[in-house]
Amino acid sequence: MNFRQEMLSSFPLRRTEHVDYTKMPEEEVIPSFLRRLSCDDVMPTSGKIVVLSVDLLVKNAFNALVTNDIRSAPLWSTAEMKFVGMLTITDFVNVLRHYYNSRTGDIKDIENQTIATWRRITGIENKPIIRIKGSESLTQAAKILIQQGVHRLPVQDDSGNAVVFVMTKRRLLQYLQEKLFSKFVESKNVNMPSFFTKTIQELQVGTFEDIAVINEDTKVIDALNLFVSRKVSALPVLDDKGSVIDVFQKFDVFALAKNQTYHDLDIPIKSLDKSYSRDTTGTCTFDETLETVITKFVSNKFHRLVVVDKNYAPAGMISLSDVLKFLVVQPLVKMENSSVSRTIPEDSEGAVGGTEAEEVEVDVDLSTGVAHMKIGDGNKPDSFEETPETETPPDDE
Predict the structure, then answer these.
(1) How are strands ordered across the β-sheet holding 314-319?
(2) CA–CA distance, 110 with 365 (Å, rounded to integer)
(3) I need a surface site. Which of 38, 139, 248, 286 has the fewest CB within 10 A?
(4) Nearest to 61 by CA among 110, 127, 98
(5) Which of 388, 392, 384, 390 lies closest to 3, judged by CA?
(6) DSSP states of 263-282 as a string?
(7) pTM for the model
């Protein structure tokens, strides 16, 4: 029995009756479809996960993320013999901002400070953990991802002793595309909802005012502050005419870790080495339909789209959160007769304290502080990261 079969055997399978989705309101089709499925239904058949020791120096930990082309990694405490959290891009941003603004600290402390020390200083080690069990429904996973503003949701087995994979917004949307949206044309018991053929302007999916933007001469520290204050993971870069010429993403900041050039955050963003960057942001226009936008997200593994006008000036932003909120959470809330905030905090994944502690033995290489855990027996790894599932690229975002 392989890993996937072994894990599935511990989940109560849901044998549901045939459903004729043509008989229900179109806005309830997607939530109803997901409600009948559990998180374990989207578990990858194989993959690997990079685990970092909390005894690693901060600079080496983030360098490990860059080297392994990932946006986050679970943290392992040898002293406690358990997982104690997650390390993410946002944590790196917060580390840099902390030392830049600190009167007592020096950014050079990154050279000799461990993750464990950083966790104690910031109090993150006591941060509440957001997680879900594999037997819980995909609608519940969607609600947590959107309403809690997280990009990555650890999925545990029912015993709570192990994290079997990490749910992401992109993984969820991709599953919907493959298992439901692609059936709209060929299936007789489900019709394509009319809103799929409406434009994003008609549906108002996304943010279309007060978009945070920068230019090539914006200082790195100012961009980092915008990431945090505006709760975004990407900033359109404009030229002198106000047209979009690039997008500065959180992942771009990892160049500072790779090259160890984080001592001067007053340099302009155009000075950063973007060879480590991945294109996770595309563009669209107001007159494109929701169906087209979803296809762009899934086919190109985008995390967000910049809405541009005829002059290529930024007119809005659409994130995975916006799409999933419209498709799943808003109609689900109406079905459950509850309410949800209109504002989506796109970027709250900063953790250094993310996954539930697990009683699983991990063999961490003491010389590097890095371990690789493999699941499944497939030859083609299915990354746990929202990043190189390509993710790219995480947010996501």
Answers:
(1) 281-284, 304-308, 314-319
(2) 21
(3) 286
(4) 110
(5) 384
(6) T-TTSBGGGS--TT----EE
(7) 0.77
